[in-house]
Amino acid sequence: MRIFIVEDEKLAADRLAKMLLQLESTAEVVATAPSVRKAVELLKLKPQLDLIFMDIQLADGLSFEIFEQVPVEVPIVFTTAYDAYAIKAFKVNSIDYLLKPIDEDELAAALEKFRKLNRQSTAATPQLGALEQAMQLLNDSKNYKSRFIVKVGDHLHTIPIEDVDYFYSFEKATFLQCSSGKRFAIDYIMEQLEQLVDPQHFFRVNRGYLISLKAIKDIVAWSNSRLKLELRQAAKEDVVVSREKVQAFKAWLDR
Questions:
Q1: CATH number assigned to the domain covering 147-253
Q2: Were both Cys, which of 121, 184, 190, 238 would link to 130 (CB 3.0–4.6 Å)?
Q3: pLDDT band at residue 87, thresholds of 50, 70 and 90?
């Protein structure tokens, strides 16, 4: 079992590798990577891998950004320090997840799940990778948020997702911008929102903005191969698609 560990904390990576070797005598940790950039560099070399353990939050971003830059056909077990609510949202992206600090029994169960899925994949549909099959099954039951609760004074109001133009971060807080022009502070971080809203309709163009397709009025070529967005509800600053997301953004527009 050839394993790739993507983890930005060396002690955590070393501990995971040690646990894997204790639980699986045939395991071999062939590589580790501490960042999105390093993981992409290695995966582009197309190494022979059987399983990837991947932390969600890395030194230079979220591990989900890896999939925007390189095809990943290897089954993945995500590791995360998020609470149970966030884990439920992330689960669709993996065959399993482990809450940090990783428990040995849960790690053993994840390895067994991988073995079973791998056997079923080989026997039933060898043309599909185990990760693809798992994502197909899980995506069938995925429910995205249809509304958000916001507080106005002593009152609570609900905002339908159809009325949201974009989400943005400002001074360590997160805001929801409505198509009506109103904006509200909400109790989510951008990483959570990215998993809670339908990716068919929302795209995270950079670290600070998660944009609805219907909110985009115009797209202009910008410096350093980037794109600048004109939104129907003007933002507090220029909203620019980061260079590393431009290709994925164009593909999203062209669906």
A1: 2.40.50.1020
A2: 121
A3: low
